[in-house]
């Protein structure tokens, strides 16, 4: 019994439509995958670039603070015969670097007998601006037992201290790191340990300024589509602690692979859960100091540019199927 020509025609149309659907779907999937990889590559280049710029900016600040501190410490080293001259030396160039909150010289016990056992002059920026002086050494504040003093005495070299929190109820309160350097007299004996205090809140403002500059850069953002640019930049200690960050953006890294990279001063990219949100984290070391910069980007913001491509490809598949169906129907 011969098959009805109409049924044969319907089967042919269905076969053609199915074939076209499969081909268009495969092409759309390949295009979608390629587009997504291009978007990821673009995001990687963009945010690693932002990370590098921030890292270079912080390194420049750190280097500048070190150079200025060393100039002040050299003046102190030239005036180790008089406590008054030491104070004057600390004051002499303090205003050259307003990024540093204070400078001090912690002398070995009884170095100046007339000043008592604990002599630690401190030049600092008070709430009302300018620089002020106070003597902070005392039996209660036995700085010779402080980790930075002991380390400077043992290593005989300069370094940045581990981050710490200082509180005195004034604007001086905050998170700090101190650049430390031991000084020696003409006999080669340790005279004092000098330090320059840098406040992290100031570094956080610098990072925020850099982020805003990138967001408002019309040339850099010319070809961005459907992106909120809701990223932000932080500074991480080698143990994953966030030591400088925008307001309400404090975080900590607990991922072991990332922590290993931070300790080994390596760059990398990782998907991490931060404040209940999946984020892509671009991180890398800062020169001159054992910290790293990390750019935190919500993953959905990176994926947003793929949405119009998905809509376009789906529309093309539907239109293609519709055209084939109309052509087959007329035959």
Structure description:
The protein is an alpha+beta fold and 331 residues long. The chain is built from seven helices and twelve strands. Strands 1, 2, 3, 4, 5, 6 and 7 form a seven-stranded antiparallel sheet that branches. Helix 1 packs antiparallel against helix 2 (83-92), helix 1 packs antiparallel against helix 4 (200-215) and helix 1 (5-77) packs antiparallel against helix 7 (306-330). The longest helix has 73 residues, at 5-77. The radius of gyration is 31 Å and the shape is rod-shaped.
Question: Could you name the key traits of this structure?
Answer:
12 strands; alpha+beta; 331 residues; seven-stranded antiparallel sheet; five-stranded antiparallel sheet
**What is the count of DSSP helices, taking H or I runs of 4+ residues?**
7
Order of helices and strands: HHEEEHEEEEHEEHEEEHH
Number of strands: 12
Class from helix and strand fractions = alpha+beta
Poorly predicted tracts of residues: none
How much is the average pLDDT? Answer: 84
Write a concise synopsis of the structure shown.
The protein is α+β, with helices and mostly antiparallel strands and 331 residues long. The protein contains seven helices and twelve strands.
Secondary-structure topology with pairs:
Blueprint: H1 5-77, H2 83-92, E1 100-107, E2 121-124, E3 132-135, H3 147-155, E4 159-160, E5 164-166, E6 174-184, E7 190-199, H4 200-215, E8 232-237, E9 242-244, H5 256-263, E10 268-274, E11 277-285, E12 291-298, H6 299-303, H7 306-330
Antiparallel strand pairs: 1-2, 1-7, 2-3, 4-6, 5-6, 6-7, 8-9, 8-12, 10-11, 11-12
Helix pairs in contact: 1-2, 1-4, 1-7
């Amino acid at each position: 019994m011969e098959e009805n020509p109409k049924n044969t025609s319907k089967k042919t149309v269905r076969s053609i439509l199915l074939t076209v659907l499969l081909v268009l779907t495969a092409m759309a999937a390949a295009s979608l995958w390629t587009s997504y990889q291009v978007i990821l590559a673009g995001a990687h280049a963009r945010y690693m670039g932002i990370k590098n710029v921030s890292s270079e900016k912080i390194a420049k600040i750190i280097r500048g603070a070190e150079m200025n501190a060393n100039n002040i410490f050299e003046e102190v080293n030239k005036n180790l015969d008089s406590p008054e001259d030491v104070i004057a030396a600390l004051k002499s160039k303090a205003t050259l670097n307003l990024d540093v909150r204070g400078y001090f010289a912690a002398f070995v016990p009884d170095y100046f007998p007339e000043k008592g056992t604990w002599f630690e002059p401190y030049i600092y920026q008070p709430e009302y601006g300018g620089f002020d002086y106070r003597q902070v050494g005392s039996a209660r504040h036995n700085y010779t037992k402080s980790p930075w003093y002991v380390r400077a005495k043992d290593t005989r070299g300069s370094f940045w201290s581990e981050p710490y929190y200082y509180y005195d109820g004034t604007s001086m309160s905050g998170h700090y790191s101190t650049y430390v350097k031991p000084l020696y007299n003409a006999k080669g004996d340790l005279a004092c340990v000098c330090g320059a205090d840098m406040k992290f809140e100031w570094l956080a403002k610098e990072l925020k300024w850099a982020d805003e500059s990138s967001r408002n850069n019309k040339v850099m953002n010319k070809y961005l589509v459907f992106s909120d640019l809701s990223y932000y930049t932080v500074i991480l200690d080698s143990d994953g602690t966030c030591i400088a960050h925008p307001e309400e953006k404090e975080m900590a890294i607990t991922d072991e692979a990332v922590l290993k990279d931070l300790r080994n001063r390596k760059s990398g990219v990782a998907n991490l859960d931060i404040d209940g949100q999946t984020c892509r984290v671009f991180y890398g070391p800062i020169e001159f100091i054992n910290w790293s910069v990390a750019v935190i980007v919500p993953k959905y913001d990176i994926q947003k540019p793929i949405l119009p491509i998905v809509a376009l490809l789906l529309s093309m598949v539907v239109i293609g199927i519709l055209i084939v169906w109309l052509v087959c129907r007329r035959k």
